[in-house]
Design goal:
The protein has 111 residues and is mainly α. It is built from five helices and three strands; from the N terminus they run H-H-E-H-H-E-E-H.
């Protein structure tokens, strides 16, 4: 797991892609999921998506889903390592929010 920590922080795109792949999904589905969950703020382009997919495949964070039927659409799913990475990033982001809220609220209380 210590090797996984070296991969943090994730880009926002990578984090959302890992969230999307908690269930098997193809590229267009990932793009739609990320756009929806981010309320349209993050709209992944194909180059960004497939570059991230290639990188995550090489790192072992995701894997292709072996489909019974021949399909043009490749589906991907998160691996155990990918889930660990997503958990570590969630923990890191939660810590950022907690610390930010404490500091900001402390500053507000001083006024």
């Amino acid at each position: 797991m210590s090797n996984n920590k070296e991969s943090l922080p994730l880009t926002e795109a990578n984090y959302y892609i890992l969230l999307a792949l908690q269930q098997p999904m193809h590229g267009y589905g990932i793009i739609q999921f990320v756009k929806e969950i981010s309320n349209g703020r993050l709209d992944l382009g194909p180059g960004t998506l497939y570059g991230a997919i290639k990188s995550m495949l090489e790192k072992g964070w995701i894997q292709p889903v072996h489909q019974k039927e021949a399909s043009r659409r490749k589906e991907y799913e998160i691996t155990k390592t990918g889930k660990e990475i997503a958990e570590l990033e969630l923990h890191r982001l939660t810590e950022l929010v907690i610390n930010g809220n404490q500091i900001i609220r402390g500053e507000e209380n001083d006024n």
